[in-house]
Design goal:
- By secondary structure, the protein is an alpha+beta fold.
- It folds into two domains: 79 residues, no CATH class; 35 residues, no CATH class.
- It has a three-stranded antiparallel beta sheet with strand order 1-2-3.
- A hairpin with a 5-residue loop joins strand 2 and strand 3.
- Helix 1 packs across helix 4 and helix 5 packs across helix 7.
């Protein structure tokens, strides 16, 4: 069954039913253009979604809604509507795609790519200690 894109109000309802926690980021302290919700999963991931204010009956565009479902809420259309319409929260397996325990923090990987210009293949071979040493060496080298 093909459903329409949700409204902001339905997006908020989904977050409330599933038990997402409303948070305020540093950027939002200056302006209140968005509601931000987070959900900590058993596998260690933290999902985050933002909803433009006011949470009214304005609908999302098709492309934006697909992105929100897939990348922010990590649910299917069917799971979303069961949650909103019937109050049935999605079943989230704890055996999901958790990041590997040896994964580098995203900020460090970003620095390796954009500052040191390393390839993904080179970064994949680095341990956390090796990556940290490389960045520390770079930062401690004077630039003239």
């Amino acid at each position: 069954m093909k459903r329409r894109a949700a409204t902001r109000r339905e997006h908020v309802r989904f977050c409330e039913v599933e038990g997402w926690r409303q948070v305020q980021s540093a950027r939002e302290s200056a302006n209140n253009h968005h509601l931000t919700f987070e959900l900590a999963l058993d596998d260690g991931r933290v999902l985050r979604t933002r909803i433009s204010r006011p949470p009214n009956n304005d609908s999302y565009g098709k492309a934006l809604w697909s992105h929100i479902l897939r990348d922010q809420l990590c649910v299917t259309q069917s799971e979303f509507w069961k949650c909103v319409d019937d109050g049935i929260a999605p079943v989230r397996s704890s055996s999901g795609s958790a990041p590997p325990s040896a994964a580098l923090p995203a900020g460090l990987a970003h620095q390796l790519v954009h500052v040191l210009k390393l390839s993904s293949a080179e970064i994949a071979k680095l341990s956390l200690e090796e990556a940290t040493v490389l960045m520390n060496q770079h930062w401690s080298t004077p630039t003239d």
